[in-house]
Design brief:
The complex is a heterotrimer of chains A (152), B (505) and C (325). Chain B is an all-alpha fold. Chain B has 20 helices and 2 strands. Chain B has one domain. In chain C, 55% of the residues are buried. Chains in contact: A-B, A-C, B-C.
Amino acid sequence: MVFQRVFIAVWLIAGLVLAYIGWDYQAPFSYEPVGPRAFPLLMLGLMCASLVYLLVKPTPLSQEHDEQPMDAPTLRKILVCFLLLLAYALLFEALGFIVSSTLAGMAFARLYGGRWKGSAITSVLLSIGLYILFDRILDVPLPQGLLSGLEI
Amino acid sequence: MDTLTYLAQGFGVAMTPTNLMIALIGTLIGTVVGLLPGLGPINGVALLIPIAFALGLPPESALILLAAVYLGCEYGGRISSILLNIPGEASTLMTTLDGYPLARQGRAGVALSLSAWSSFIGALIATCGMVLFAPLLAKWAIAFGPAEYFVLMVLAIVALAGMAGDKPMKTLVAALLGLFLSTVGIDANSGVYRFTFDSIHVADGIQFVVLVLGLFSVSEILLLLEKTHHGHTVVKTTGRMLFNLNEARRVFFINLRCAVGGFVIGVLPGAGATLASALAYMTEKRIAGPSGQFGKGDIRGLAAPETAIGASCCGAMVPMLTLGVPGSGTTAVMIGALTLYNITPGPLLFQNEPQLVWGLIASLFIANVMLLVLNVPMIKVFTRILAVPNWALVPAIAIITSIGVYAIHATTFDLILMVLVGILGYILRKLDFPLSPLLLGFILGGLMEQNLRRALSISNGALDILWSSGITQAIWMLVVLMLVLPVIRIWRRRQAQRKALLADA
Amino acid sequence: MTLSLRHLSIAAATVLLSTQLMAEPKRPECIAPASPGGGFDLTCKLAQSALVDAKLLEKPMRVTYMPGGVGAVAYNTVVAQRPKEGGTIVAFSSGSLLNLSQGKFGRFDEKAVKWLAAVGTSYGAIAVRNDSPYKTLGDLVEALKKDPSKVVIGAGGTVGSQDWMQTALIAKAAGINPRDLRYVSLEGGGEIATALLGGHIQVGSTDISDSMPHIESGNMRILAVFSENRLEEPAMAEIPTAREQGYDIVWPVVRGFYLGPKVSDEDYTWWKNAFDKLLASDDFAKLRDQRELFPFAMTGDELDAYVQKEVARYRGLAKEFGLIQ
C-alpha cells in the first residue's frame, strides 16, 4: 500500500511536469481551433485528477494473483534481471547479436534456474539459430559487432 | 451472373497445382513469421515480394503467395498471444484477454483451435461479402471522412469503458496514460514536435512494437522470474486439443455478428483489425452481461475478437482492389508489389485485371481453408511451447523480443526504451493497473485527436460537422446505446427483484 | 606545375586502375528511412534490382528499414554511428531536404553526408474531383482570391511538408497569406484520393504519380503539374503545367541516395561509377518508368551542388512563410 502511494505520487509529479512542458506548445500555423496542445493537456489533466483520487483512496490490491508476497530475495532477483536486460540492450550493437545474445541468454538461463551446461548449450544454439533465421532467412539485419571481421 | 463466372474463373486460377502449392508455402511461412513477436504481416509480405519477383512468378501467383502469407501471419500472431500472453501486434491484443487465461487453465489447444475456427468463419463471411458487395463497399469506404472516423473513435473509447470491471479508476488512469502517450512525437496537423525532448528517436512517436513488447513481454519475463523463484510448476495442456461441437454452437452467433462487424470496419482504410477486434470484444462483453466470464477465460471473449480480425483482414483488401488505396500497412506493401508487375491498383483493376482480382479472392478462400486444415496437426506442436522449462524459455523470449524491437529502427535507443517500459509495465501489473486499456488508448488516441482536428479544419472550426452526416448520426446512436445498455440491464434486474419481492409478499 | 600535372596523371591512372580492380563494397545495403511500402522503399528497391540487372552487384543488396521523421533517424544514425560503412547507401527525397532545411534533422546539416546520386523525380500536382467547378489553376487562384475560407485543400503532409509548400506557393500566387487557407493535413496520396472522391475536401495538393490511377479512371482531374515542361508519358501529355498557365511554380520531388561522411573515397567512387553507368542505360530507364518516376540523373559533385542549392531555396521559403526564424 505504501509502495502504491509512492508510485502514484511519482507518476503524478511526472504528469504535472509534462503538463508544464506541454503548456508551451504552439503552432506557427494552425488551421483549426484545437491546436497541438489541447489534447495532450486534457489527457494529462484527467490523468492527474484521477491519480489524485487514487492517492487519496488507493484501491486495495486484489489477491487473485495467487502470489507470494514480495520478499527481499525475489526483489533482488528482479533487480538483477532488470540490470541484465539493460546490459543486453546496451551491448546488443557493440558486441554484436551473436556474442551479446549468447552471454545474455546464458545469464538469463542461470537466473531462471538452469544448470551451467544446459544454459550454455541452449544459449549458444539459440543465438546462432536465431541469427541464421532472422539475418539470413527473414532478412532482418542484426548487428555483427565483434564478429564483423568473420565475413559470415 | 457475371460475378459468378468470374469467381469460377478465379478458382480456376487459384486451384492450379502450382498455385495451391504456393498458397500452402505462403501460409506456413506466414504462420512462422507471425508467431515471432514484433514481426508481422508487413515483414512477411515485404520479405517475400522480391523473392516472388526473382522467381519469376506470374502476378496472380505472386499475389496469391502474398495473400497467403498475410493470412498466415494473422494466424501466427495469435499463438504467442494465447500461449505466452505476448501480443505480437496491435490486433491480437484482445486475444490475450481471454486466450491466455484459457491456456493457463490447461485449455491452450481448445483456445488455439477455436480461434482458428472463428477467424476462419470471419474470413469466409468477409470473402463472400467481398464477392457480393465490393463496389458498394468502396462507396462506404470513401464516405468515411475525418468526422466519421472521429465519431467511430469515440465509440471505441466509450466501448473501452466496458473493460473497467472492478477497478474503474485504475482502468481509467491506464487508458488516459495510453491516450497521452499517443501524442508523443510530431503532431501530424501542425508539425509541432511534442514531448520528444529534442530526440529524433521519438520524432515519429513511440513505436507500438516497443510499447507492446515492453509492457507485455519484458514484464512477463519479470513475472516468470517471480514464479520460478517461488517454484511454480508449468501449466501443462491437458485433454483435448480441439474445441467440441457444444463450444462451437455457443459461439456461433458471435461468429456471425463479429464477422459482419469486423468486415465492415475492416473495409475502412486505416481503421483496421485492431479497432474491429476491440469493438467486437467490448460489444460481446456488453451483450453477455453478468453471465460472462470475460477476462477470465471465456470462450466467447476469444471468439469475438478472432472472428473480427479474420473478417477485417479480408475487408482491408476491398479498398485496395476497388480504389487502389491501402486499407492497412500490409496492403500498402501489396500495392507496392503490384506496381512491380506494372499493375497499378486502382478503380480500374476490376475491369482491367479481372483474372488477377478474382484469382486473389478465390485464393483467400483457399488460404483460409488451408490454415484451418494445417492448424489441426500443428496445435500439438505449438502447445509444446508451454512445456518448455522457464530457464530455456526466458532466454528465447528475451532474445526474440529484442530482435523484434531492433528490427524497427535498428537502434539501441529502442531497446533501452523497451526495457524501461517493461519495468514500468511490471510495476503497473503488480499494482493492478490493466495494460490493455493503456495500449488501446495509445492506438485509438492518435486517430481520435488527428481526425477531430482534421474534421474541424475542414469545417473551418464549426462543430456541427461532427453530427451532420447520416453516418455520424448512426454512430452517435450506437454510442448512446453503449452507454445506456448497462443502465437498462441494472434497471431490469431491479424490476425483476421488485417483482420477486412482490410475489413473495 | 609539371609536378602537379604528373600527380594528376598518376592519380587519374590509379583511379582508372582501381575502378577496374575495385571490388564492390562489403555488405551492400540500402536503408529506406521509412516503413516498407512507401516511396523510400521504392527508391531502394529500384536501385536493388537495377544494380543486379546491370551486373554491377553480384547479389541483390539488402533493403532495410529505418523509419522516423522523413529520414531524420536514418540521417542521424548514419552520420553519428555508422559513418564509415562503405556498403551502406541511404535513400533520400526532396522531402528529406525540406525537413533538413527546417532544422528537423537534429544537430546535423546538409553538409554532414556524402551525396551520391539522384535517380529519378516525381512532380507535385494539384488534383480535384472530376465534377469540380475549377477547370484550370487560374480558376482555383481566383476562387482563393475571392474567399480563401471557401476552398478546402487537403494535402498529404503536415505544415511545412512538400504538399503544404505547394499550397503555400499557390496562396502566394493568389496574393493571400497561407495562414488564411483552409488546409487539412492527411497522410499520403491514398488518403487524399479517398477524401477527394468522398467529397470531404475540394482540392488535393499531391503528387502526380500517386494520382495517375484515379486520373485514368476518370474520377479525378489534375489542374496543374509543377514540372518545368509537360511530361512525356502518353497519359500525362494532356496535363498542363503551372508554368504554361502563368504561375511560375516548379516542385520536383527528387529521389536519390547518400553515403556516410567517412566512407572511403574508393567506395564512394565505386558507387558513383556504378550509378553513372546505371543512369545512362536504357534498362534502368525502363525500371524507373515502371515505378512512375521521371528522368533525373545527377551524381557526385553536381548532385552535391544541387542539394546545397535546393536546401538554401527551401530555407528561404520556410523563412518567407514564417516556419522558421
